[in-house]
């Protein structure tokens, strides 16, 4: 038996009287590409926030690659190999694409890029990071934009750069919060194809939040977890999810998003 990349057990998160996440448990193996879907407000982002240490869970445990990460800070969890992106990207607008890859993500490490340079050995590491940054841009097929300012990018291009920044930390596991929201169809297809290849070729596990149920159920993914009202409604292959009346009803209850 191999150690799961991520194991979440009995996760609950209360905001005052509101239980946003209610006893969620699931496990993801190394190299798996898993979708997390659910209507608005069903607790997807809050689950990510608890896993990545941005929020303290009310109850439950989080294990990353077999290590108990419950209660750890975001930077400690990142060092275990788990990196995340955010629903709203936080690129440095006044920096170029490649520069954005060379500074740590705004939220996961704090807001001052200069602090990153104070880390021991940063000068030697710098050369490797530049070559890594171009490899990541190649992988995401955006190396032609390396010297564009982030402020010039479209929403979809910004999402790609954000994924690039996450990949710069050489993660074992990635949590992606709506990586293709607002992205035009062909580019969204390309992003998903590249992500799928990363899981297959480099064994990086991924849990991807996606709002559009039709879109995710047509993708080449291993499994889909469906959340509703803070709980896991169902877990299964895209085909099993498509056949579930419960899932369709949960979405139709949320103003008919299954129709999108
Ligand atoms: N920091 C917070 N304080 C109070 N309530 C919050 C907070 N964050 C989220 N919530 C509430 O928790 C519930 C779950 O929100 P969450 O953002 O996790 O949903 P989601 O599934 O990501 O939704 P969406 O698809 O719209 O992004 C919602 O009712 C939301 O209003
Ligand atoms: Mg969300």
N-to-C order of helices and strands? EEEHEEHEHHHHHEHEHEEHH
Number of strands: 10
CATH top-level class of the domain at 6-91 and 170-259: Alpha Beta
Structural class: alpha/beta
What is the level-2 CATH architecture name of the domain at 6-91 and 170-259?
Answer: 3-Layer(aba) Sandwich
Radius of gyration, in Å, reads 18 Å
Helix content: 25-40%
Annotated CATH topology of the domain at 6-91 and 170-259: Rossmann fold
Enumerate the distinct ligands: adenosine-5'-triphosphate, magnesium ion
- Strand fraction equals 15-25%
Low-confidence stretches: 106-111, 255-260
Structure report:
- Helices cover 37% and strands 23% of the residues.
- Strands 6-7-8-3-9-10 form a 6-stranded mixed beta sheet, sandwiched between helices. The protein has a 4-stranded antiparallel beta sheet with strand order 2-1-4-5, with helices on one face.
- The protein starts with 5 loop residues before the first strand and ends in an 8-residue tail after the last helix.
- The protein is α/β, with parallel strands linked by helices and 260 residues long.
- Residues 106-111 and 255-260 have low confidence and may be disordered.
- Strand 9 and strand 10 (231-236) form a beta hairpin.
- It has helices spanning 44-51, 74-79, 97-102, 106-109, 113-117, 122-139, 155-167, 185-202, 213-217, 238-242, 245-252, and strands at 6-15, 18-28, 33-37, 59-64, 67-68, 82-84, 173-177, 205-209, 223-228, 231-236.
- It has 11 helices and 10 strands.
- It has a domain at 6-91 and 170-259: Rossmann fold (3-Layer(aba) Sandwich).
- The structure holds adenosine-5'-triphosphate and magnesium ion.
- Residues 44-45, 87 line the site of magnesium ion.
């Amino acid at each position: 038996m191999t150690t799961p990349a991520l194991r979440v057990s009995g996760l609950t998160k209360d905001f005052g009287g509101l239980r946003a996440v209610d006893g969620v448990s699931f496990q993801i193996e190394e190299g798996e590409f898993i979708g997390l879907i659910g209507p608005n407000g069903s607790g997807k982002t809050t689950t990510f926030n608890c896993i990545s240490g941005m929020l303290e869970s009310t109850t439950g445990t989080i294990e990353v690659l077999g290590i108990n990460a419950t209660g750890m800070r975001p930077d400690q969890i990142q060092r275990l190999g788990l990196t995340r992106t955010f629903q709203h990207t936080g690129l440095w607008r006044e920096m170029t694409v490649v520069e954005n890859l060379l500074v740590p993500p705004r939220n996961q490490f704090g807001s001052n890029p200069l602090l990153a340079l104070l880390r021991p050995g940063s000068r030697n590491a710098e050369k490797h990071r530049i070559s890594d940054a171009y490899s990541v841009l190649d992988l995401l097929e955006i190396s032609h934009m390396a010297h564009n300012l982030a402020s010039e990018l479209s929403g979809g291009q910004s999402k790609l750069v954000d994924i690039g920044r996450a990949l710069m930390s050489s993660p074992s596991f990635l949590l992606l919060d709506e990586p293709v929201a607002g992205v035009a169809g062909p580019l969204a297809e390309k992003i998903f194809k590249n992500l799928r290849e990363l899981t297959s070729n480099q064994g990086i596990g991924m849990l991807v939040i996606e709002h559009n149920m039709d879109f995710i159920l047509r993708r080449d993914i291993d499994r889909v977890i469906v959340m509703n009202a803070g709980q896991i409604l169902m877990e299964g292959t895209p085909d099993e999810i498509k056949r579930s009346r419960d899932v369709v009803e949960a979405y139709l209850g949320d103003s008919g998003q299954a129709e999108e």
